[in-house]
């Protein structure tokens, strides 16, 4: 099984640019172009939040137009920049999004069980996993011991990036207590920090995916400042071979020279 992960697309409305400078929809288009040409074709894409920048219907329509070009299915979860109602309205055929409440779901149709979590705390940048959302996760984990990947926008661990660590995920310790009790959880996938990070966490491995657009400057000092950088954007491929671990490849998006060696 191959899981593609893209994150933090921050799509803006047609005619606009993020921060007046970034064509985030164009960046997403290039990510989709790269994913669409992969051989073998991924089984599914997990799209881990901050799908659009301001939660508007126009942004979600533009997001959908790009994602529809993927030649394989994709699953969406919200980030702090998303709005559940507008998201659902733009993807009415994505039944797993539900019709109200948090956007959390289990997908048992792949070799790895997929569980999406909703860490959006309305109107706030930091994420939250409240008692209700965590109780739902516990109930779902109790129904199967299949190898499982959990995906959630906000990483449950501190990355060392000062600005981000000042806004930790509310509920992360409770999530860790749950995850620790389930050794079948192969990975917790996240986004939000616009960089690739990995951590041993709660008895499993947790990781974050780069943004398809702008990356956050790696600043390991505490502080309020947050800058973005036009480092190569990227996506991740999580490759699961029978009997082996889930292996992650971080793939920069762009044209790079290749030469045959053998
Ligand atoms: Fe983001």
In short:
Helices cover 21% and strands 23% of the residues. It is built from 6 helices and 13 strands.
Approximate shape: globular
Radius of gyration: 17 Å
CATH topology: Purple Acid Phosphatase, chain A, domain 2
Poorly predicted runs of 5 or more residues: none
Order of strands in the sheet with most strands: 4-5-6-7-9-8
Which H/E pattern describes the elements? EHEHEHEEHEHHEEEEEEE
| Termini Cα gap | 27 Å
Number of strands: 13
Work out the helicity level: 10-25%
Counting DSSP H or I runs of 4 or more residues, the number of helices is 6
Describe the structure.
The protein is of the alpha/beta class. The protein has one domain: 4-Layer Sandwich (Purple Acid Phosphatase, chain A, domain 2). The protein is built from 6 helices and 13 strands. It has helices at residues 24-36, 57-67, 84-90, 131-141, 162-165, 172-180; strands spanning 2-6, 44-48, 74-77, 105-107, 113-116, 148-151, 185-190, 197-201, 204-208, 215-216, 228-229, 234-240, 246-252. The strands form 3 sheets. It has a 6-stranded mixed beta sheet with strand order 4-5-6-7-9-8, with helices on one face. The chain has a 5-stranded mixed beta sheet with strand order 3-2-1-12-13, with no helix packed on it. It has a two-stranded antiparallel ribbon with strand order 10-11. Helix 1 runs parallel beside helix 2 and helix 2 (57-67) crosses helix 3 (84-90). The radius of gyration is 17 Å and the shape is globular. The mean pLDDT is 97. The structure holds fe (ii) ion. The site of fe (ii) ion (FE2) has 6 residues, from loops.
């Amino acid at each position: 099984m191959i899981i593609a992960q893209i994150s933090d697309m921050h799509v803006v409305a047609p005619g606009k640019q993020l921060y007046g400078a970034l064509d985030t929809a164009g960046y997403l288009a290039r990510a989709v172009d790269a994913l669409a040409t992969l051989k073998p074709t991924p089984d599914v894409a997990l799209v881990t939040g901050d799908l659009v920048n301001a939660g508007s219907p126009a942004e979600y329509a533009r997001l959908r137009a790009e994602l529809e070009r993927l030649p394989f299915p994709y699953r969406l979860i919200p980030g702090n920049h998303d709005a559940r109602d507008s998201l659902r309205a733009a993807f009415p055929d994505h039944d797993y999004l539900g019709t109200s409440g948090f956007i959390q779901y289990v997908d048992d149709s792949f070799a790895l069980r997929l569980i999406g979590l909703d860490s959006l705390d309305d109107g706030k940048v930091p994420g939250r996993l409240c008692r209700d959302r965590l109780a739902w996760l516990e109930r779902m984990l109790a129904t199967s011991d299949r190898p499982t990947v959990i995906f959630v926008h906000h990483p449950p661990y501190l990355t060392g990036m000062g600005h981000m660590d000042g806004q930790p995920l509310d509920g992360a310790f409770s999530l860790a207590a749950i995850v620790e009790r389930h050794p079948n959880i192969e990975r917790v996938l996240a986004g939000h920090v616009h960089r690739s990070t990995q951590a041993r966490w709660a008895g499993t491995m947790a990781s974050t995916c780069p943004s398809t657009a702008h990356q956050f400057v790696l600043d390991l000092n505490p502080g309020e400042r947050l800058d973005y950088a036009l480092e190569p954007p990227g996506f991740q491929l999580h490759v699961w071979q029978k009997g082996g671990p889930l292996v992650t490849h971080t793939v920069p998006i762009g044209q790079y020279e290749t030469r045959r060696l053998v």
